[in-house]
Write a structure and sequence with these properties.
- Pfam families: MOSC.
- Residues 18-143 form the MOSC domain.
- The protein is mainly β.
- It has one domain (2-149): PK beta-barrel domain-like (M1 Pyruvate Kinase, Domain 3), CATH 2.40.33.20.
- The chain contains 3 helices and 11 strands; from the N terminus they run βββββαβββααβββ.
- It has helices at residues 49-57, 109-114, 119-122; strands spanning 2-9, 18-20, 22-26, 30-31, 44-48, 71-74, 86-89, 93-100, 124-130, 132-135, 139-142.
- The strands form 2 sheets. Strands 1-6-5-9-8-7-11 form a 7-stranded mixed barrel.
- The longest helix is centred in the middle third of the chain and has 9 residues, at 49-57.
- The N and C termini lie close together (10 Å).
């Protein structure tokens, strides 16, 4: 079982995402009010808190949303979750993993400063199967695991 440690959104593409306490996830769309929401396979991006903390320990001054992530999740090594897996979180939200990592077409500011960026290899993407409200601090768990039957 994991915990949603952060929710971040941005109103326009190419801008830094900012933390919010809660968000509404819309089926087949993504996070309401986020620029990356839409009818495509990368509606919601997730990044593990543990990898962000490791990156900070290397001297990176990164705040929530700096990598363009929507959800900061503690408790899962996300890059090892297979495509097609489903996460349940918050008030009935269901997310289906659609992509592991991404290609970085142009090096971001974090890469220019640090010589590295974790989102392309540690981040995952999902689409919203069932919408609902998600809050920072909500539990998140993989479908078909023991956590689901609690």
């Amino acid at each position: 079982m994991g915990i949603v440690r952060g929710i971040c959104v941005s109103p326009a593409r190419g801008t830094k995402k900012t933390p919010v306490a809660e968000a509404v996830l819309k089926e087949d769309w993504g996070i309401v009010g986020d620029a990356h929401a839409g009818n495509w396979h990368r509606q919601v991006s997730l990044l593990p808190l543990e990898r962000i903390e490791e990156f900070r320990a290397r001297g990176a001054a990164v705040e929530p949303g700096a990598f363009g992530e929507n959800l900061i999740v503690e408790g899962y090594d996300l890059k090892n979750i297979p495509v097609g897996s489903r996460f349940h979180a918050g008030a009935g939200c269901v997310l289906e993993v659609t992509q592991i990592g991404k290609e970085c077409h142009s090096h971001c500011e974090i890469f220019r400063v640090m010589g590295d960026c974790i989102m392309p290899r540690e981040g995952i993407f999902a689409r919203v199967i069932t919408g609902g409200t998600l809050r920072t601090g909500d539990e998140i768990w993989l479908e078909g695991t023991e956590e689901q039957s609690r």
